[in-house]
Amino acid sequence: MDSHKPEVPVQDGDGMVVARLDVDRLRRCGAPEAVFAQGKTPEETVRISEALAEKQGFALITRAGPEAMRLIDARWPGCRRAPHAGAALVGMPPEPVRDGRWAAVIAAGTSDLPVAEEAVLTLAALGREGRIIADVGVAGLQRLLDRLEEIRAASVVIAVAGMEGALPSVVAGLIASPVVAVPTSVGYGAHLGGITALLGMLGSCAPGISVVNIDNGFGAAMTAARIMNV
Amino acid sequence: MDSHKPEVPVQDGDGMVVARLDVDRLRRCGAPEAVFAQGKTPEETVRISEALAEKQGFALITRAGPEAMRLIDARWPGCRRAPHAGAALVGMPPEPVRDGRWAAVIAAGTSDLPVAEEAVLTLAALGREGRIIADVGVAGLQRLLDRLEEIRAASVVIAVAGMEGALPSVVAGLIASPVVAVPTSVGYGAHLGGITALLGMLGSCAPGISVVNIDNGFGAAMTAARIMNV
Amino acid sequence: MDSHKPEVPVQDGDGMVVARLDVDRLRRCGAPEAVFAQGKTPEETVRISEALAEKQGFALITRAGPEAMRLIDARWPGCRRAPHAGAALVGMPPEPVRDGRWAAVIAAGTSDLPVAEEAVLTLAALGREGRIIADVGVAGLQRLLDRLEEIRAASVVIAVAGMEGALPSVVAGLIASPVVAVPTSVGYGAHLGGITALLGMLGSCAPGISVVNIDNGFGAAMTAARIMNV
Amino acid sequence: MDSHKPEVPVQDGDGMVVARLDVDRLRRCGAPEAVFAQGKTPEETVRISEALAEKQGFALITRAGPEAMRLIDARWPGCRRAPHAGAALVGMPPEPVRDGRWAAVIAAGTSDLPVAEEAVLTLAALGREGRIIADVGVAGLQRLLDRLEEIRAASVVIAVAGMEGALPSVVAGLIASPVVAVPTSVGYGAHLGGITALLGMLGSCAPGISVVNIDNGFGAAMTAARIMNV
Amino acid sequence: MDSHKPEVPVQDGDGMVVARLDVDRLRRCGAPEAVFAQGKTPEETVRISEALAEKQGFALITRAGPEAMRLIDARWPGCRRAPHAGAALVGMPPEPVRDGRWAAVIAAGTSDLPVAEEAVLTLAALGREGRIIADVGVAGLQRLLDRLEEIRAASVVIAVAGMEGALPSVVAGLIASPVVAVPTSVGYGAHLGGITALLGMLGSCAPGISVVNIDNGFGAAMTAARIMNV
Amino acid sequence: MDSHKPEVPVQDGDGMVVARLDVDRLRRCGAPEAVFAQGKTPEETVRISEALAEKQGFALITRAGPEAMRLIDARWPGCRRAPHAGAALVGMPPEPVRDGRWAAVIAAGTSDLPVAEEAVLTLAALGREGRIIADVGVAGLQRLLDRLEEIRAASVVIAVAGMEGALPSVVAGLIASPVVAVPTSVGYGAHLGGITALLGMLGSCAPGISVVNIDNGFGAAMTAARIMNV
Amino acid sequence: MDSHKPEVPVQDGDGMVVARLDVDRLRRCGAPEAVFAQGKTPEETVRISEALAEKQGFALITRAGPEAMRLIDARWPGCRRAPHAGAALVGMPPEPVRDGRWAAVIAAGTSDLPVAEEAVLTLAALGREGRIIADVGVAGLQRLLDRLEEIRAASVVIAVAGMEGALPSVVAGLIASPVVAVPTSVGYGAHLGGITALLGMLGSCAPGISVVNIDNGFGAAMTAARIMNV
Amino acid sequence: MDSHKPEVPVQDGDGMVVARLDVDRLRRCGAPEAVFAQGKTPEETVRISEALAEKQGFALITRAGPEAMRLIDARWPGCRRAPHAGAALVGMPPEPVRDGRWAAVIAAGTSDLPVAEEAVLTLAALGREGRIIADVGVAGLQRLLDRLEEIRAASVVIAVAGMEGALPSVVAGLIASPVVAVPTSVGYGAHLGGITALLGMLGSCAPGISVVNIDNGFGAAMTAARIMNV
C-alpha cells in the first residue's frame, strides 16, 4: 500500500485518543473530512471544526442543532450556511472548479428543501456549484416539465423526494445525465421513515438512477462531485 | 338484520360441508360470487363453476392454472377468457349496463398486462366495460401524455404498475376521476414481491388514489364497478 | 400537453422560491390545493393559508398543532374546525353540491374520530357532505348492525379503523357502495403504527374495498369526492 | 426436579442417537408425543410412528406428504385420517373424555379447512371432540350469525382464518368462551404468508382471544385440550 | 340475531356521540367494559369511569398516566391499584368466584412486573384471583424449578417475558395447564419493541401455549378468566 | 414538451397492443431500449429482439433463461454473450466511444460474477468498456490492495458484492472516482435475498458511493455510462 | 502491511480469472480455505476441491447437493462425510490438536442435526473435535439437565436450535464456557426462515452467548476453533 | 440438578418479592450479577447496587442516566466509571487474572466509543483487561492497518461498529483470534437502529466472527471473558 501522511489524533480530557482526523482523505479521495455534528455537543462541534479548518483551510459542518448553529455564527460571523439543514461552511472554502459543470438539485416538495440545501453546501465545500429547483414533484407534472430544459443543461442531477419518491423515475426518463436520487424521510402513514421512497427509487423502471441513503444530501453531493470530476 | 336467502351448501365426497355459496351476495352487494381457482384441483374448479353458473347464469373464474384453463375450454368452448391471467367468464354473462360509463385500465409495462386483463374480465362479469391502455409507464412519459385525453374520458381509472409504482401518482395529478391503484409483483431486486409498489402507491403525493392488494385485478374491478354504480 | 395557468410562486425571506402553489389543480383534478401544516411554523401556516384563500376563496388546513390552531382561530374567528384533527377550513368554502350524494364516515372506536373528522372537513372543502357514525367496531357487532340502513343509504362509505382493521371487511360484505378504508395508527403491541390495520384492509376477503394511507382522512375524502363526482 | 421415566432413544443407521422420544410427556403435560412428518422420509415417518404407537398405543402423525400418507394407509388400513391436512391417527386412540365438553372449530373459508382438520384430528388424539363449522368468514356475516347458537354451546372455540383474519374478532365479541385463533397462510398479495392474519388476530379489539402460530392447527388443539381439562 | 340491551351513548361537549358503552358485553361475553385511558385526558378518564361504575357497579381503568392516577386516587381513595401498570379498579368489584381456580402470573424479570400487575388487577375485575411469581427467567433456571409445584397447582398460567421470551416454552414443557404467553417490550438492541419475544412465543416447540399482544396483560387476563369459566 | 418520434407498437396474436418500444429513448436518454427476457417466452424474446435490432441495429437481451439463450445462439451465431448472466448482445453493437474512459467492474466473490458480466455486456451495448476484476472481497484484503492501482485508473468503479456488501465501503475510501455499488442476492442465512448487502452499501461510512438495486448489473452499467458521458 | 504468499488464480474455460484461492489464509487466520458448493456445478465442486486438496493436503466441502456428494464419493471413496449436511472432508485432514480441548455441539431437535454435523466436520478440518449431543430442546427440559455434566466439561459449546431458539439461553445460564449459538431455519409459521430464532438468541437474557448466521454450522465451528486456539 | 445457594430476594415497599439476586451465578457461570439501571429510578439503582456490592464485594452498573451517575459518584467517590456509557464499577473489583491474556476493543468511529467503554468496564468487573483502539473504521483503511500488529497480539478482539458494520469482516480476515462483533445503533437513514450493522456482521464473508446484540458492550465482554477463561 502506498505511503501516507499521518492522521491528526484528537484526545479527550483524559488523554484518550477518541478520533483521528483523516486529513489525507483529500489527496486520496478528492474530498475533505467533514464534521458530522449529530451526537456531539455544540462546543465539541466548534472545537473540532476549528481544528479541521486550521488543517484544511475550511470545514464543512453538517447536522448541527440550533444551539450549535448559534455558536458557529458567533465564531464565524457571515459564514455560508444552510440553516434549515443545520449545515455551515466555515473558513476559506476551496476555489470553485472552472470547467462549466454544475449540478441541478431538484426537490419534489417544500419539505425536501433542507436535504437539497445540505447537498448544495456540500458541493460548495468541494468547489462545485449546485442549483436548487424546488417544488417540482410529479403530482403537478407541468411544474417539472416547465423546468426540463434547465435540468437537461446540468452535468448531473440530484433528485430529492420523499413520499413515494417518483421524481427520479420521471426525470431520468427525460434526460441523459446521471441522476443521484436522495429519498427523504418526508411523508405520513406507511412512509416508514423514508424506506418507501428509498425502495421506490431503487426499483425504478427508468435507467441511469443510483441512490444514496435517506436524507443524505451530503452523500449525494459527494457522489455528484466525483461524477463531475471524471 | 334483514332476512336473507339460504346459502347453497357444497359437500365433499364424505358429505362434509366445505363451502356455502353466498348467492345472496349479488342482491346484497351488487356483485356475484366468483370462483377463486388457486388451491383447488382443476376438476373442483369446473364442478364449482358449473354449480355457480347454474344458480347465477354465469360464473367468473380467476387464478386458474393451465390445466384448469384447458378443462374450462373443453367444458365451455368459446367462453370469454383472459388466458395470461388464468381467468374465464363462462355461461351467460350479465347484460352490460348502458349508462355510458367505462373504466380505463392503464398498465405501466407489458408484465402488468395479466393483472389488467383480470380486471377487464371481472368488469365484464359485473356488466361493465374496461379498456386496456398498455405500456404507459412513467419512464417514457410521452407515451402516457399521448393517451391522456382518452384516459380523462373514463369514469374511473384502474392503474396497474409494478416496480416503483409511480404511474398512479402521475396520472392522478392530471385527471379528475378516481384512480384505483393496483401494485403488481413485477420487478427485481428490492421490489419485495410488490410491496415496494404498494408502499409507493399508498404514499403518493397525488390526491384521489386508493389502493387494492398486490396483483389484485379482481378487487380493483370490484371497486371500480361499485364506483360506476354510484 | 394542454396549456395551463401559471403557478403561484412562494419565496422565503432570502427570495428563494420554496413552493409553487398549484392553483390550476382545481380545474385539472377537481380538487383545490390544501395546506399541510406539519413541518411548518404556525406563522408560515397562516401566511400560506392567507395566500391560498386569496386565490381560491378558501383554504383547507390539515395537521396543524395546537399553537397553529390558536393562530388560525385568531385570524379567522368562527371558521369551521376539526379540532382533534388539527384541521380548519377558512375563508368562504365552496357551495355544497346539490345532487343528493353524501358519504358515511364510520369509525370503529373513539380513538379513530380525529381521522374521521379530518375526512369530513376535507369533504366540506370539496363541497361534499360527510356524516360521522361513531364507535361501530366489530367487537360489539350489534352497534354496527343497528346503523346498517343508514350506512346503506350513503353513496360512498369511508371506514376508519385501527387495531386489526376489520370494520371495512364486515361492512363491505353487507352493502353495495364503494368502501374507502382508512387504517389508523391506533392500537398497542404489534399494531406497528397502523401497518397491521393497513395489511388487514388490503387483505380483506370482502369485495369493493380500496385503501388509503394510515391516518389519511384527507386522502380518503379526496377519493370519496372523486367517486361522488362520477 | 422430580424423578422421571427414561426417554426412548432413536438411532440412525450409524448408531448415532438422533432423537429421544419424550414418552413421559403424557404424564407431565397431559399430551402425547406426536410425529411431525415434514422433513422426514415417508419410511422414517412410518418407522417412528410404529415405535411411538407401540409405546403409547397410538400415534398422531402431522404434515405428511402424499407418499407418506399412502404408506400410512397401507400400514394402518382404515385409520382415522385428515387427508387434506396430511395427518393421521394410527393405532388405538385414547378413550374420549366424557365430560360434555367439546370444541367448535370454525373456519373462515374453504382454504382454511386443512388447518381445521388438523386441529380436529389432534383433539381426537387427546380424547377430545372437535366439530368443524365451515365457511363462516365475515364477508358474508349472516353465515356466521346463523351458526351462533351452536358456537356458543362449545366449551372453547378454535377460529381459523387467513387473509385479514377478522373472524376471531367478530366471534369473540359475541360469545363468552375462550377463543384460540389460528392464522392461516391463505391469501394473496400482501398477506405475507399469514403474517397479516397473525397481526390482525393479535391486535384484535375483542377480548378473550389468544393466538397460535400460522397454520398451527396442532398447537391450537393442544391449547384447546388443556383448556377443556381445566 | 338475538335481542340486546341498548348501549349507553357518550357525547362530547358539542353533542356528537363519540362512544357507546357496550354495557351488554358482560351478559354476552362474561366480561365487563373497561376504560382504556391512553389517549384520553385525565379528566375524561375519570368522567367515563364514573359513568361506567354507575352502570356496572365498578370500573377497571388501564394505561393511565401519573396525572390520571392522581385524579383517580383523589376520586376513589383506597381503591385497588396497580401503580406501575397505571391501572386501577374503582367502585365495588364483583364477588370473587369460589370454585378453587386461580391463575399463576409468572414474570421472567423485574421489568415484566407492570404487565403482570395489569393482568392481576384485570383478573380481580373479573372475580378471579391471580398470584404473581416474579423473577423466574430461564437464565437462572433454578429459580423457576424451585417454584414449579406452585405453578403446577394453578388452573392456568400467564407467562410474562421480554427479551427472547423463552419462559413460556420452558414452563409449558413442565406442566399440563394452559399457558397464556404475554411478550413484553422489555429488552435492548434487536428486541424490536417486543416483536422478538412475540415471535419466539409463537414459534415455541412446547405444546399448549397461546399468545396475546405485546404488553397486553389485560388481554391475557381476559383469556385466562374465560378459561377458568369453562 | 418537445416533439418526439412515434413509438413502435407491438401487438399480440389477437391484435392487442401489448408494448410500445420506446425507440426515442436513445436520443432522449443516450441509452437504447433493451429486452428484459424474464417473464417472456423464449420465442417472444427472440421476436422482440429481432424487432428491436432492426430499429436500432442491435439489441441487448438480459435475464434470459437457458432455453432462450439456445434460441439466441441459433438465431445470432457468434453474438457476444454473458452466459452466466443470461445476457446477449445481438446485431451490430454501437461503435466504442474513444475518449479513454472505462469502468472497473470489481466483484467480491465468484458468485458475484454473473452480475458483473451483465454490467460489462450492458456497457458494451452503450459503447463503453468494462473490465472485470474478480474475487477481491474484503475478507482477504490483500487481494484488493494488490489491484488498487488498476482500480484507481478507471473513470468509474462498479463494485459488486453480496453477503455483508463491504467492498464498496473499503474501495471508496481508497480512491477518488465515483463508486456505483451493486448488492447481490448472494449469501446464506440472514442475507435476506440481498437486502443485507443493500442496506450495508447505503449505510456506508465512506463517501462517493451510490447504490442500484439488488443484482442490477444492467442498471449499474446504465449509471456508469451516463457518468462517463458527463 | 506484511508480505504474503501469492494467491492461486482459478480460470474458467475462456481464461478469465474467476477465483483466487486464498491459500495464505491458513497462515494468516489459522483456518484453511473451504469449498462452498452451493451455486457451483458438481463438476466444478470436484475440480476446485482437487485443486485445493493439492495445495493444502485436504479440502472441506460444504453445502453440496446429492449429485455432488455422489461425485465426491466416487472421487474420494471412504472420505469423511456429513451426508445430511452435504459436507465432506477429502484428502488428508490435519492432525488433531492434542490439548484436551473439545467442543460440545448440542442440538435442540432432530431437524437441527444437519447443521450440527456441518459444525463437527468443519471442526475436524481444523484439527478439532466436536461431539454432538442431540435432541436436548427446552420443551423437555430433563433431557438437557441429564447431559449437563457432559456439556460443562467441554471447552466451548455450539448450541444449535430453530423455532424459538431458547436452548442457548437456558444452557448459558447453567455453565461457564462460551456459547456459540446457531439459529436454524427449522420451524413453521412465523419462524421467518430462522429470523425468529436468530432474534431470540441475540436478545437472550443469559450472558456469554454470541451468535452466527442462520444454519451456519461452518461459521460456528470456525469461531469455536479460534476460541479453542486462544 | 446440582444443589445451589439460595437467591437473595428483594422486596418492594409493599413486601412483594420483585427480584431474586442470582448470587450463585458467579460460581455457576464464572460471572457476577450486574445492575442494569435502565428502567430503574436512580435511588433504586444505588440501593440494589449496595445490596449486590455487599454480597459480591463489588457491583457493575450499566445503562445509568446522568442523575443516577451523580448519585453513584456521591455514594462511591472515585469509583471506576465509563461516563459516556453510563456505567460504573463500585466497591472492590475482583483481582485481575494474571495469565497474559487481554482483549483488544476496536471501535470504527468516535460514536462507537461508549459501547467500547461499556465493554472495557465489564471486562474489569470480570478481572480482565480490555484496551480500546479507537477510530479505525474501514473508510480510512490505513488507520486500521497501522494498528494491526497490536490487534494481532490480543487474545480476543471485540469489534464495535455502526453504519454498515464492515470492521469485523475486514479485521477477521487479517488475524487468527476470535472476533466478537458488536453492532451499534450509530448511523443515519436506513441504518434501522443498528439492524443494518447487525445483518452485515452476521452475513460476513470472513470466518471466525460471532455477534452480540446491538450496542451490547456488556454482552460482548461477557463472551470475551469466557473465551479468555477457556
What does it look like?
The structure is a homooctamer of 230-residue chains. With 230 residues, chain A is α/β, with parallel strands linked by helices. Helix content of chain A is 35%, strand content 20%. Chain A is built from nine helices and eleven strands. In chain A, the strands form three sheets. In chain A, strands 8-7-9-10-11 form a five-stranded parallel beta sheet. In chain A, a hairpin with a 5-residue loop joins strand 1 (8-11) and strand 2 (17-21). In chain A, helix 2 (42-56) packs across helix 3 and helix 4 (113-125) packs across helix 9. In chain A, 67% of the residues are buried.
Quick take:
Eight copies of one chain form a homooctamer. Residues 1-6 of chain A have low confidence and may be disordered.
